[in-house]
Amino acid sequence: MRDNLAIHAQEARRAAPGLADRLGEHVVAALIEEVTLAPKPGLVDIRSRGAHHDLDWKLMCASAVALQPTFAELARAGIETRPMPALRERIGAIGRDGERRMLDTTRGVNTHRGAIWALGLLVTAAAREPADLTPEGVAARAGAIARLPDRHAPALTGHKGEQACVDYNVGGARGQAQAGFPHVVGAALPELARSRIRGDSETAARLNALLAVMASLDDTCVLARGGRSALAEMQHGARRVLEHGGAGALAGRRHLKMLDRRLVDLHVSPGGAADLLAAALFLDRLQAETKPIH
């Protein structure tokens, strides 16, 4: 047994640099693809601040690039640390360091806290078993990691999303991860595939994937700012866009524009859905990885 563990550790050290760096680059690319996508209702994109006053496209991109070493380190942890409890605690520490790196880059503005959690779990899970980069496989492994305790994590963070989970009795980002990212695997990626098959542009397909998440997600970013009434408006508005052909149809685009105006008026932004879109884009990128990376 010890010989097998030693052999695995040796192989992991050899594989880690190329695999970890490449996966980290995929995460950053997915984050930049997500924030650049436009027009996203209520969200920062390349043309608008959405419902935000302290965020813009340039800051979001700078934050994503600054986090590349964090995501590569998370991937390395997935390769090198086989005992699951130890892995959970190692990536928890890396994630908290990444959050500090983010805040240093943005001068205290939260740009990617949710993304560090969601994509951090997914990149760890992808690196752990690079022979299985299917969305279902990666998401299931990420869920198994998320369900483990981290003895060193703070009991309470004071973040708005955490409070929204308590106030509205929803699972939030933690519940989504622990369930194996059902809105990514069961909503965003299927809608992305359907839209591509239908002949929609890639921009429209990605917007439709976002809308598919928004249509049913209990987004704590929206709940924290606007409560249940704002969440209901967001979900209903997203469904209406899809019912009218999505972002690739004229009627769908009209409803998308209306939804964007309404969310900005309400001062709510579906940041949870945006994080899950970035997660979907990351998993979509992994489909090009048909064999282990060395």
From TrEMBL:
Q: What is the recorded name of this protein? A: Probable 2-(5''-triphosphoribosyl)-3'-dephosphocoenzyme-A synthase
Q: GO BP, one example?
A: prosthetic group biosynthetic process
Q: Which UniProt keywords apply?
A: ATP-binding, Nucleotide-binding, Transferase
One of the record's GO molecular function terms: ATP binding
Q: What is its EC number?
A: 2.4.2.52
What exactly does this protein do? Involved in the formation of 2-(5''-phosphoribosyl)-3'-dephosphocoenzyme-A, the prosthetic group of the acyl-carrier protein of the malonate decarboxylase.
Q: Does the keyword ATP-binding apply?
A: yes
User: What family is reported?
Assistant: Belongs to the CitG/MdcB family.
Read off the Pfam families from this record.
Answer: CitG (PF01874)
Supply the HAMAP family for this chain: MdcB (MF_01883)
Reactions the enzyme catalyzes: 3'-dephospho-CoA + ATP = 2'-(5''-triphospho-alpha-D-ribosyl)-3'-dephospho-CoA + adenine
Enzyme class of the recorded protein, top EC level? transferase
